[in-house]
Design goal:
Blueprint (H helix, E strand, L loop, with lengths): L3 H8 L3 E2 L4 E2 L6 E7 L2 E8 L7 H15 L5 E8 L15 E9 L6 H14 L4 E5 L7 H4 L8 E5 L2 E5 L1 E3 L2 E5 L6 H5 L3 H13 L6 E7 L6 H9 L4 E6 L3 H15 L7 E11 L16 H8 L4 E7 L1 H9 L12 H21 L10
Helix pairs in contact: 1-2, 3-11, 6-7
Bound molecules: adenosine-5'-triphosphate (ATP).
Length: 364
């Protein structure tokens, strides 16, 4: 006879490969029921974008069939509840579970392209996602999402005027480009940029989010410091390109996050424009700028390498037209960005399980 205990014992042999504990101990097995040879249960993962989802499901099935009964009819409901390890007072971004900053050592490496497609990639897999354009001096998110002409609405919350983020393709977004003329933003000085950013944090109704992606300005500067001091950023993703000079700049970005007064864990390094793929020969990869630079850099810092993204004309065209690669079913880059989203979500789950929460100066 199949019992609940025998099923649980079998499932104790299935490990979450990232968290390195079995799924029963981790409390991921829910709603177990057994009737005759019908066994059903839910496995609750830490992210809907988990790249190990299919593997864990198969391992559960095999464990019950091999260790309990080969005649068991097993129904597994794979779900996810994104965890947060925030321990701050939640004065800022109260309903936001995880905050991911996307950075680059220098401009033009595709940081905004990665931010947009990472946000959409997480949302495509079922997460609630927001995208904050903190690139105050050169906001490109409104163009990339095709919302240049939209203006956010205001809402009254307990007598305080709050900005309602613009929604597009299932994500919420806010950019200085949605409030003022893009050209004006370029001439802003440091203190103005910092106070605009603080508004994005305190005066925008982000609501409940699993992930908030922050597209940082290129390089290292005032805005980065403001963000590190006011927002409990869960982790950062550093974008690089293959050229040696780009890798050297990306190294500076990694060093910035490691500084004592910033101290934000780096989730990994992604290499954009790693190889060229012509539209008519999608299987061909040409490593025109050299190969393996960002992976080597990640290795030196003992950071995860989050993968290579191709240089494809349609990524640029999609960006200009407001149709990002993840939204374009025909884009050869779509699958790569979905993989990247899975890698980032996975590294974030590991970070939350193994490291202390990020500290910030509390706002009074
Ligand atoms: N993998 C890619 N293939 C083709 N074009 C790309 C790719 N990644 C980015 N681009 C294009 O390169 C240009 C710069 O990209 P993007 O604006 O994302 O860079 P950035 O690092 O955010 O720049 P900045 O920080 O200076 O604003 C854009 O026109 C974008 O569409």
């Amino acid at each position: 006879m199949i019992t609940k205990e025998s099923v649980l014992d079998a499932l104790r042999n299935v490990d979450d490969p990232d968290l390195r504990k079995d799924i029963v101990t981790l409390g991921m097995v829910k709603d177990l029921s057994v009737e005759g040879n019908q066994v059903s249960f839910t496995v609750e993962l830490t992210t809907p974008a988990c790249p190990m989802k299919d593997m864990i499901e198969k391992a559960c099935l095999n464990a019950v069939r091999m260790m309990v009964s080969k005649d068991a009819e097993v129904h597994i409901n794979m779900t996810a509840r994104v965890v947060s390890n925030r321990r701050d007072r939640q004065d800022v971004l109260p309903g936001v579970k995880n905050i991911i900053a996307v950075a680059s050592g220098k401009g033009g490496v595709g940081k905004s392209t990665v931010s947009v497609n990472l946000a959409l990639g997480l949302a495509a897999q079922g997460a609630r996602v927001g995208l904050m354009d903190a690139d105050i001096y050169g906001p490109s998110i409104p163009i990339m999402l095709g919302i240049r002409d939209e203006r956010p609405k205001m809402a009254d919350v307990n007598g305080k005027g709050m900005i309602v983020p613009v929604e597009k393709f299932g994500i919420k977004t806010m950019s200085i480009g949605l409030l003022i003329d893009e050209k004006q933003a370029v001439i802003w000085r440091g203190p103005m940029a910092s106070s605009a950013l603080k508004q994005f944090v305190t005066d925008v109704l982000w609501g409940e989010l699993d992930y908030l992606i922050i597209d940082l300005p290129p390089g290292t500067g005032d805005v980065h410091l403001t963000i590190a001091q006011t927002i409990p950023v869960t982790g950062a993703v550093v974008v690089s390109t293959p050229q040696a000079v780009a890798a050297a700049d990306a190294r500076k970005a990694v060093m910035m996050f490691k500084q004592e007064h910033i101290n934000i864990p780096v989730l990994g390094v992604v290499e954009n424009m790693a190889y060229f793929t012509p539209a008519e020969l999608p299987e061909n990869k040409y490593y025109i700028f050299g190969k393996g630079g960002a992976a080597k850099m990640a290795d030196q810092f003992e950071l995860p390498f989050l993968g290579e993204l191709p240089l494809i004309q349609s990524i640029r065209e999609g960006g200009d037209m407001g149709i990002p690669a993840v939204i374009d079913e025909d884009s050869p880059a779509r699958a790569r960005f979905l993989e990247l989203a899975g890698q980032v979500a996975q590294q974030l789950a590991i970070r939350n399980a193994t490291m202390a929460p990020t500290q910030v100066l509390e706002i009074n």
